[in-house]
Write a structure and sequence with these properties.
heterodimer, A: 308 residues, alpha/beta, 26% strand, B: 252 residues, mainly alpha, 73% helix
């Protein structure tokens, strides 16, 4: 039976003199999912990825990939992994194809893999050009091809949309979804861009100041917060007093608009009571919480919202 | 072992079209070209024309001395720095060391490629000395160069100096990989070479890697065995320390 998790960490810890790093971190990334690893800049996402890839030594704890331990001298599990860590690592004087050839030789892969991954990232026509002639987006795509070259079971991508134009980001989303759906790949996608994760991920982990504040599915995350009710009326002051009495908590007030999370009464009940009190209700809307606000609630730090 | 050969093959791709690869023939060509040019313009007065074998040896010794004393230390400095910069430049280590290939394999491959490049430069040096000698025989017969070149001298000295240069190769590989800055690697090599000019004229030249090779050249040449053994010992220690340092360092 295959191990249920592509990535597992147990009390993984690494601290830097600056105070940054990761606190005891227990990650469990199910195999076959697209896991969004979210957190503001400096949260410890890249440190975590470097620990997963054995680029850094942990102060304590353990990493397992598909059940196999990874660490100094224990690199066998990395054969299942393709990775892109931060900016692409490429040889600018070599062509795109030769950049792939370096890794192909190191891993003793079949030559046909070069054409396959170049086609996957739509770089076949540009493969002969030297990388120093490539745009930032093309470099990013080549780095993605490099990560896909060993035909990995687990793809670890750190901010992969950096440098990509909106069309490139869209293509990346389609490609990642396809890899998960058709090949059963597990994708571990680190980003500080909320929209990017929201559009592709099935599972998320929220990291802040080196601590994992949430791990689960997107739906589980959404369920952590109840819908909010927005009421616009002709006498917001009196309505606020009434709603505070009904709900045992005062609503937020913005001019003639009141915002509250109804806990004791349904929206219809609140509407009826306000009307009975002689208050004209112009608008009553139930709004689902945005992921942005959920993350803000969790981390207390703003995440960048990119709707591209 | 298969990993090592694959890593060497990968290094072969990395150096395609690089200055480091071109320097393997450019550096010896510069040395021999300079020596040939000096001999063409030098006035010998009414000096008797030496015997052909003696003239050949004199030319070969001069070119070899220039190579060993000046060009070789700088060449090794530059080659090791250029090879290491292939990985430092775009932070390639974070890609290479995330692969399922042993960390030490990369270090072994780097040293092997540098050794191969230095060895190829010695081959080019020998070839260019022979070509240069034949050119001088035609262009300036008064030098006395004629007949076949000093193959025995070239083979023996090339091998001896190459083996002694392994001390410099391993030290420079360690430095160039240890520090990501190109300037640090080059400045260290240049300083060590200049110091070698002074140490080379003293009794301590047998213990200084940048002047060790001078022992087996010139009129005061010593028995090569101990000199080579000392250099190989220094090379082994530098290799071991460099490898230990590489294994414990984090490249991210």
């Amino acid at each position: 039976m295959p191990p249920p998790h592509a990535i597992e960490t147990f009390a993984l810890t690494r601290r830097f003199p600056s105070g940054h790093g990761v606190q005891p971190l227990d990650l469990a990334v199910p195999a076959g999912c697209l896991y969004g690893f979210l957190g503001p800049n400096g949260a410890g996402k890249t440190t975590t990825i470097r620990l997963l890839l054995s680029l850094l030594r942990p102060d304590a704890g353990e990493v397992r990939l598909f059940g196999e331990p990874v660490g100094p001298g224990r690199r066998a599990a990395l054969r299942h992994v393709g990775a892109l860590v931060e900016a692409p690592s490429l040889y600018p004087h070599l062509s795109g194809r030769d950049n792939l050839e370096v890794t192909r030789r190191l891993l003793s892969l079949h030559k046909t893999r070069l054409d396959e991954v170049l086609a996957l990232v739509d770089l076949t026509a540009e493969a002969h050009r030297t990388v120093r002639e490539y745009s930032l987006g093309m470099r990013q795509r080549l780095a993605l091809a490099l990560a896909l070259l060993p035909d990995p079971r687990l793809l670890i991508l750190d901010e992969p949309s950096n440098g990509l134009d909106p069309a490139g980001i869209q293509d990346l989303r389609v490609l990642l979804r396809r890899l998960v759906a058709e090949r059963g790949l597990t994708v571990f996608l680190s980003s500080h861009l909320l929209a990017e994760i929201e559009l592709v991920a099935t599972h998320v982990g929220v990291l802040h100041q080196g601590r994992l504040l949430f791990a689960g599915t997107l739906d589980e995350l959404r369920r952590r917060s109840q819908p909010k009710l927005r009421i616009t009326c002709d006498d917001a002051g009196r309505a606020a007093g009434l709603l505070a009495a009904f709900e045992d908590a005062p609503p937020d007030r913005q001019n003639q608009t009141l915002i509250l999370v109804p806990r004791r009464s349904s929206p219809a009940e609140l509407n009826r009571r306000l009307v009975e009190a002689g208050i004209a209700v112009h608008e009553l809307v139930t709004t689902a919480p945005s992921l942005e606000s959920l993350f803000f609630d969790l981390t207390g730090a703003p995440l960048e919202v990119n709707h591209g | 072992m298969a990993d090592f050969f694959r890593a060497v093959a990968a290094e072969g791709v990395k150096i395609r079209g690089t200055l480091a690869r071109r320097l393997c023939w450019v550096a010896p060509l510069v040395v021999v070209g300079l020596d040939v040019a000096m001999l063409l313009v030098r006035k010998f007065g009414d000096r008797p024309v030496p015997a052909p074998a003696e003239a050949w040896l004199s030319f070969a010794q001069e070119a070899f001395g220039l190579w060993t004393f000046l060009m070789l230390p700088l060449f090794i400095t530059l080659q090791s720095a250029l090879l290491a910069q292939l990985e430092h430049g775009e932070r390639q280590w974070k890609h290479l060391l995330a692969l399922p290939v042993g960390k030490t394999v990369h270090y072994h491959a780097k040293v092997a490629v540098l050794v191969a490049m230095i060895f190829s430069a010695f081959l080019f040096l020998g070839i260019f000395i022979l070509i240069g000698g034949h050119f001088l025989a035609w262009a300036k017969p008064s030098l006395g160069i004629a007949g076949p070149g000093p193959f025995g001298y070239l083979l023996t000295k090339s091998l001896q100096v190459f083996l002694i240069s392994t001390a410099m190769i391993t030290i420079h590989t360690w430095i160039a990989i240890r520090w990501t800055s190109f300037t640090v690697a080059v400045a260290t090599g240049m300083s060590a070479t200049v110091i070698g000019f002074l140490v080379g004229q003293s009794e301590y030249r047998a213990y200084y890697p940048w002047s060790m090779a001078l022992q087996v050249l010139g009129g005061k040449a010593v028995e090569p065995g101990p000199a080579i053994a000392t250099a190989l010992l220094v090379a082994a220690v530098a290799y071991g320390l460099g490898l230990w340092d590489f294994r414990r360092r984090e490249f991210s």
